[in-house]
Amino acid sequence: MVNNLIIGNDYDGDVDANPSTTTTLGELVEQRYSRRQMMGGMSAMTTAAFGASLLAGCGESDDKADVITVTDGTTVQTQGGRVVTLTSSATANAATTAWTQVGGPTVALQTSGNSVSFVAPNVTTTTNIVLQFTASNGTGSSSERSTVVVSPATLAFAAVAKNKNDIVTVPSGYTVSVLYRAGDPIASGVAAFANDGTDTNYAQRAGDNHDGMSYFGLAASGNTPDASNNTRGLLAINHEYINPGYMHVGAPTTTTDANGVARRPEAEVLKEIEAHGVSVVEVARAGNTGAWSYVPNSALNRRVTPNTPVAFSGPVKGDAMLRTVYSKDGTTGRGTINNCANGALPWGDYATCEENWAGYFARASTDASVRTATGNAKQVTSLSRYGVGTNSRYGWQTVAATDPTSTIFSRWNASAVAANAADGTADFRNEPFTFGWVVEIDPYNPASTPRKRTALGRMAHEGVMAGRMVAGVKPAFYMGDDGRNEYIYKFVSATAWSTADATPTDRLATGDKYLDTGTLYVAKFNADGTGQWLPLVFGQNGLDANNTRYPFASQADVLANARLAGDALGATPMDRPEWTAVNPVNGEMYCTLTNNSNRRGVASSSSQRSIDAANPRSYVDTRTDGGTSTGNANGHVVRLREANDSTESTSFTWDVYAFGARSTADANNVNLSGLDDTNDFSSPDGLWFGLPTNAGGQASPLLFVQTDDGAYTDVTNCMMLIGMPGRVGDGTTRTVTSSFGGTATATARVGAAPGAKLKRFLVGPKECEITGITSTADGRSIFINVQHPGEDGDYANITSHWPQSQATGTGTGRPRAATVVITKNDGGVVGL
């Protein structure tokens, strides 16, 4: 059926030859509408009065060019996240056609001729979106409406099977492309990466072992921000650590000098140092559906390495504990290291987090006695609590620099030298206190100086995730401290959020506003499903000079020793708190607890912890190859709901979203979430919610869970799952009995079994970790990092050839960490 619209002022039949006095149709119309109004609305009016057959007859005029035909509207069914395309038609004499939305939640329309496309939003209940197609020739128009019935989204992909292939495996209907690999050049004049150990100048190449990551949209041209641009942007990417066995021509070397001192060679160590830190690199897509690539010569490309100048900000800035040879006033420092997880700050900056930095330093055997003799005995307690010992991870401090004035190697020797001033300005005894912070970077300004935000505390920061930003409410930033039996924290700004600050002209100054003043809290989980945020405030609750274990001298001292402050307040030791993520719809915070080999039914040493309600499992996980893992071998994901759903609250309720386990594990005491072959996992690590700017972050937001596992690798490589979680309290309580380290029971608060609302979406290549995730605003391009493929091998025994193997599953080259981009072949939102 078609609708015909008659256009024009003169046409055959416009003469009244009937002498009857009966009112004509035209007279009736003119009594209600003007001539021009009639021309624009006659189609719908006539159809309503007489049906389509009469209107079709009216179209049979001699002046065929005056007739515009528009197809009828339609009704179609879809679900959130799917691409909808509608096509209508009009006769050739239509001068213009247009699609407009006239009903339902607003969607972004993309028109091409007489077709229109949009991505359906996610919804909580079936919702109609109404579009109107209009054709006109300047004097009149005809239109028809179509209704798109949108149902709530589901995880509409087939779960990927567990596997040990040397590729990134995704569901049918998706495409994986390798985007940015370790060693890729990011400046003009830098040679292509040879990947044979001879490459140098990592200060202008992608670093090693990509980790946390965020996407920042760029305007179509120029270097200005545009968060909504889905085809051009910047990726800020952490480079956590290195794989020395693949980085050099052969094994890392050590020589002995004339005095019998073991030394690492300068060139090797410089390469290792520069491969740490952060990349900021421009990426672009060819049109709306083409391939992604990075821009090697972009003016915005940047590396922040351990040698990059940084500034301290917040309460610890200028404190005596930050004074070194490099910065005698304790206000500046150099670089960032062991950058694991991250956060995209609400004003457009990148937050990178310093995790296991302590292992980069070495202290002489005399260090403790020197500090004690000079009145700094409590520093010995602090360094021990944070794990700064006598041996370093890579031996960087042993280099004898060619330039005698250079301190880029000697800074990793944290020994207090007796002959030097006790304030630390003559050596690097205080250098460990310059690490362990959240670092803010302006990705859009490569000339800017990164700032270490000391108000957020010092620890093995895994990540920092902003809670929901509500105008007039003080925002919170959630953090995990990645260590066995460490704590979960949040920082609440002293400044209430202003929406005007979402797009500031000076992003780092906005960071000053929200991150330099506020209160740091540590979490205590109670057995009854409640919890408290305990304030880390000097002078309160024993955080003062009278503390017998560590006498706190100031708020700066409390923040720099957040672990010791958490100990003093009785915070709950957790099973390695890692990434945090916040549900953009309801504000609930999730935190991955990767695993804990020191969890016992009943603790028998100071390094162990007994099971409790928030960490209720201790068991033996038996591998198919005969090996075993013990304690909480597979980890879990805890979640909490703030009182009154407010970031300012100091109390919360909590439960466990999902317990990692083999699908075949004991359902009563281990596989508490009822996982099966489509969703069983181990050692959750990376964690991220879809963005509220697309269906993946609306109604029932997608939760992406990534793994860094050593317990389940007998069966599968590491993976990423996608879930659609419910709410805190949607499950039940279970009594769990420990089967390892003494018999004990705990009452676990278990969320509703995930079932089909949690599926395995991706499996990585051999011996990798899947980590780091971000997306474009529309959710149609997802960026994922693959870290340390082939980590069990080296130059002489290459155990993975990824990403070379991505195309065929095989290869010959050394493995490289890399960023991949995943798109859905039909252009929809990834995961839906």
TrEMBL record:
Q: Mark out the compositionally biased spans (Polar residues).
A: 599-610
The ranges of region (Disordered) come to 599-637
* Entry-linked Pfam families: PhoX
Q: Which organism is it from?
A: Sphingomonas endophytica
Show the stretches that span the lipid bilayer.
Answer: none
Protein name, UniProt field: Phosphatase
